[in-house]
Amino acid sequence: MNHKDLSSVVTALSQANRVLFITGAGVSEESGIPTYRGIGGIYNQKLKNGMEVEELLSISSFNTNPHLVWKYIYEMENRCRNALPNRGHYIIAKMEEFLPYVLVVTQNVDGLHRKAGSKNLIELHGYIYNLKCTGCGKETEVSDFSHIDIPPYCSECGGIIRPDVVFFGETLPVKKYYRLISEIKDGFDIVFSVGTSSLFSYVSLPVYEIKNRGGLTVEINPSFTSISHIVDIKITMEAGPALSLIWENYRQRFKIK
Ligand SMILES: [Zn+2]
């Protein structure tokens, strides 16, 4: 990150009333969580049975073969069990403490933003440890999947339980979507798009909207994405190191411990 960009971001942060973070898998990479789509993600390739991950983790697969889908979800969860938030998550949570208004919109289902202390948070795709019965709708939260049977059945109605996440082929939960729309309507002074390929329109359109309304748009991503050409500042770095640089600089300039 060059000095001019760093200085612009820090100055804008110091003047901002409303700051938006849109985050994706790249934020959790440093915590050891593999990305589905990113470079080198273990689920980047076709799965052993020849299915694409989008096909396997879809609602139609879940409806026809919940056991198979649960098996993969369980394997994924097993690899990331005990993952902890990293400096990227903590810095974003810290900013919420110090800045007037910070909203985090994440596509990650790993819960690491909430673990790091972010409170004003929209988990667009859900949270892997929230489970929901497909029969009676009963919800439970578990700390991990070590004690669940695959697939789990509801003790109340015998229905199959699913993780309360958005599968491929499903739409976003309506309430969360409308909250996002209404937040965007209220405007943001800065938006940071961090570690996301911005493939979904509901995470790229807010960046366009904020730019059109005169907000500063910043992308932190080592790769080039669908929004790289329109953002005001493109930071070609991983999330953790980039956010550390920005926050260190902010703290020094404004004498925050
Ligand atoms: Zn039930």
Question: Could you walk me through the main structural features you see in this protein, from its secondary elements to its overall organization?
Answer:
By secondary structure, the chain is of the alpha/beta class. The chain has 2 domains: 3-32 and 86-125 and 172-254, TPP-binding domain (Rossmann fold, 3-Layer(aba) Sandwich); 34-82 and 129-165, SIR2/SIRT2 'Small Domain' (2-Layer Sandwich), CATH 3.30.1600.10. It contains 10 helices and 9 strands. It has helices at 3-15, 25-28, 53-56, 59-64, 66-80, 87-98, 112-116, 174-186, 201-212, 239-254; strands at 18-23, 101-106, 121-123, 126-133, 139-141, 161-165, 190-194, 216-220, 233-235. It has a 6-stranded parallel beta sheet, sandwiched between helices. Strands 5-4-6 form a 3-stranded antiparallel beta sheet, with no helix packed on it. Helix 1 (3-15) crosses helix 10 and helix 6 packs parallel to helix 10. The longest helix is centred in the C-terminal third of the chain and has 16 residues, at 239-254. The chain is elongated. The two termini are 23 Å apart. Zinc ion binds at residues 133, 135-136, 138, 154, 156-157, 159.
User: Reading side by side through the largest sheet, how are the strands ordered?
Assistant: 3-2-1-7-8-9
- Tally the beta strands: 9
The CATH architecture of the largest domain is 3-Layer(aba) Sandwich
Poorly predicted sequence stretches spanning 5 or more consecutive residues: 37-44
What's the structural domain tally?
2
CATH class of the largest domain: Alpha Beta
The overall average pLDDT, rounded, is 91
From the alpha carbons, calculate the radius of gyration and give it in angstroms: 19 Å
